[in-house]
Amino acid sequence: MATAGQLLIGEAIRTLDGRFRLSLPLELAGPLVADGARLVLAKERAGCLSLWSAAVWRPRLDAALDVLRSKLQAGLLAQRVGEVQQAGRLLSARHAALSLAGRERLVVPEGFRAFLGVEPGGDVVVVGAAVCVELWHPKAWQEVLTADMPDFRRRLDALTG
Amino acid sequence: MATAGQLLIGEAIRTLDGRFRLSLPLELAGPLVADGARLVLAKERAGCLSLWSAAVWRPRLDAALDVLRSKLQAGLLAQRVGEVQQAGRLLSARHAALSLAGRERLVVPEGFRAFLGVEPGGDVVVVGAAVCVELWHPKAWQEVLTADMPDFRRRLDALTG
DNA sequence: TCCCGCCGTGGGTTCAAACCCCATTGAGCT
DNA sequence: AGCTCAATGGGGTTTGAACCCACGGCGGGA
Fold first, then answer.
1. Span CA (B29) to C1' (D10), Å
2. CB < 8 Å to A64, chain B
3. Alpha-helix residue ranges (DSSP H) falling in chain A
4. What are the beta bridge partners of residue B15?
5. For range B23-32, the mean pLDDT
6. What percent of chain A clears pLDDT 90, i.e. is strictly above it?
7. Among A6-15, B57-66, B111-120, where is mean pLDDT lowest?
8. B3 in a domain, yes or no?
9. Which chain C positions come under 7 Å from a protein C-beta?
10. Which domain holds residue A26?
11. How far is the CA of A37 from the C1' of D12 (A)?
């Protein structure tokens, strides 16, 4: 399976330039674009965006959309319009397709800038997260590190044990 | 069934002009007017309006009204006059019929402007919400994204599982 | 120590889409 | 019938994204 053969690992600090461009370190960009240049940027939580190979992201999303579409047509969700509306709202805003320009550089799209919360000229922490690459607001990154690192050994053991 | 065949998905930022006109992106306007040009604008919450195909909105509204009417006639709500009064009041102000002008442009009606909270010249976030199109005040939109996005996967699973 | 190549950053240009202003049209009212 | 107001559609202008190139800093090698 694509990208499964290569874990995305690495950490780097990059600056977001005046036009919201961000260059990825080669060690992360290389494996990411290995299976096709098409990428998907997704909102994870405030202060964190994730970058996926489209080959990984697309099938998962399309499957969910197909199920949702067919259920709607069958009228199965007539009593849950509010939930469908909310899920649809998030589906629209959650991801955007993009590709890397020269120098392994990407442009953070309009709707994702406020969510990331980094102003032009500010720093972004680029982190490999095994299956994707994450872009963190430095402050949010510090908070996650502080909160999660003490349990790291236990989490890893749970996965490898 | 109308509009069920096409999920409304997409996100865009547009500006409200001096006459409270707003142009929709083609990708959202197309599917929305696919089954008839008649639309309904509804108040969702402060900072958010939703735009529905009349073919979808009408049946839902009529159904609710029918239930309310029959319960009233049966005297089932005699002890809850206050609630009925409040519901009736909101039913009156909740929605307005409208249609798109050229260039996929709509006019936000008088009573809806303060509810949306965007002044002329300000930005509006236009979001596809599967069954309707939503118009958001940028600030309210950010708050919803921050609050709801972390639970996205669970919510989607609840609908498609 | 000096040279050279690579990587990260900023800037200029081109091109397309979206926004704003304005002229024209149509309807409604006096 | 004439006037007034509002809506509509066209065109110019501006904004933003994609592409290309230039500078600086760092590291490796000679």
1. 21
2. 156, 160
3. 26-32, 54-73, 81-94, 110-116, 138-148, 152-160
4. B123
5. 88
6. 66
7. B57-66
8. no
9. 7-12, 18-21
10. 11-54+95-160
11. 38
